[in-house]
Amino acid sequence: MSEDGMIRLGWEEWLGLPDLGLPTIKAKVDTGARTSALHAFDIETFGPATKPKVRFAIHPVPGREDLTIPCSALVVDRREVTSSNGETEMRYVIETLLDAGNGQSWPIEVTLTDRGGMASRMLLGRQGLREDVIVQPTERFLLPERSYDVYSAKRIKAVTPNRALRIAVLSREPNSYSTKRLVHEGEERGHSVEIIDTTRCYMAINALAPEVHYDGKRLPRYDVVIPRIGASITAYGTAVLRQFETLGTYCVNGSAGITASRDKLHAHQVLAAQKIGMPTTAFAASPKDTSNLIGLVGTAPLIVKLLESTQGKGVVLAETKKAAESVIDAFRGLKANFLVQDFVKEASGEDIRCFVVAGKVVASMRRKSSGDDFRSNLHRGGTAENVKITPLERRTAVKAAKAFNLGLAGVDLLRSNDGPKILEVNSSPGFEGIEAASKMNLAGQLFDHIEEQVRPAPLKPKRRKTSK
């Protein structure tokens, strides 16, 4: 600001739009234009019709398409605008803060238009000028000079505000506690969260434009997908998830990890390859191998478990060798795939559920079986209480989730005489029991991880050509 209290601008200036995560942008100042404009792309509305939002992206550094800043804002209007070349279009209008430096800032209205070929990423029109602003059309850069270095890898997290995300929860149970918690927590943070029934998705699979369709319409571009895929639709659900992965959408849990963790045999092979402790396990296809199969595990009592069991279903305790042979023969008669495991007696019908988010155990609970039932699943009447786990149990749970590359996992383990034994790694853990036991906002911790992951890519320095 000059001595007379006026703010002087040249025809080109360094400005900032901090609420959009744009601390530095070169703008053309044009008093001949009535409306200010931001030259953005991928412009898309979302959210409720009563309070719509718009999200868009911008390359703030001319010539650097490797840096994309995703932005979002409330829509305040939709207005017909005629550009300098005579073209008329309907544009979304947002309100944001203009930072002119030296502590001077004020709100302005900006229209959004996809004109990537423009040299200036922003046009500041006369409606965006305060009464104490004077434009000197023959001058440039009268405001304090800024630098694009602010978009470097070291600084970008500090200057990027939390933005509204468009999130899909793949779930067939919209009224379940876990699904409702995810929707509530996301919307409390200003995100748009949509529940997508996985089985109603269908896919256009091609090299140039892969798409996911839903109820007759192509699904929009999501920032994040949170899969809650039930065991009964694992194959189709992971196929849908792979399609989102092909589109470049960030998926909290990947299709490969879900597939591997859901198949008990595959899961135990993955754990064994990572040298992670688990109950001694054996598997065979031929009925002639029943005695040898039992011998590999040890003496009775034994656990006989279907490969795709869930919530304690398809898990049987055989207390004698004869009982184990009978259960195995019954399962084979049904042409079911199963495995046999050692029964960890010292666990006494208890297991530990570790809730792992982004490679960290954020909560844990001890589950106790109901009555004489050896299964401690809450769905089978078990009870839960908060529990403090040991450093070894914490490391084991984290290592197990990492083995399947899961951003969110429920890792179940037993306390045995020779250390923790992993029972299962659940890629769609429930929130209800463990949030009640731990008194923690675990859905919030998941969204902390999501917001950390879905950030703009930092500006990569160009390599200088060296002369030989």
Automatic annotation (TrEMBL):
Q: Which UniProt keywords apply?
A: ATP-binding, Ligase, Magnesium, Manganese, Metal-binding, Nucleotide-binding, Protein biosynthesis, Ribonucleoprotein, Ribosomal protein
Q: Which GO terms describe its molecular function?
A: ATP binding; metal ion binding; ribosomal S6-glutamic acid ligase activity
| InterPro entries, per the entry | Asp_endopeptidase, ATP-grasp, ATP-grasp_RimK-type, ATP_grasp_subdomain_1, Peptidase_aspartic_dom_sf, Rimk_N, Rp_bS6_RimK/Lys_biosynth_LsyX
Q: Example GO biological process term?
A: translation
Q: Where is the ATP-grasp domain?
A: 268-451
User: Record's GO cellular component, any one?
Assistant: ribosome
Alphabetized Gene3D superfamilies for the sequence: 3.40.50.20, Acid Proteases, ATP-grasp fold, A domain, ATP-grasp fold, B domain
Coiled-coil stretches noted in the UniProt entry, renumbered to this chain? none
Q: Which cofactor does it need?
A: Mn(2+); Mg(2+)
Q: Which family does it belong to?
A: In the C-terminal section; belongs to the RimK family.
* Annotated protein name in UniProt: Probable alpha-L-glutamate ligase
Q: What species was this sequence derived from? A: Thalassorhabdomicrobium marinisediminis
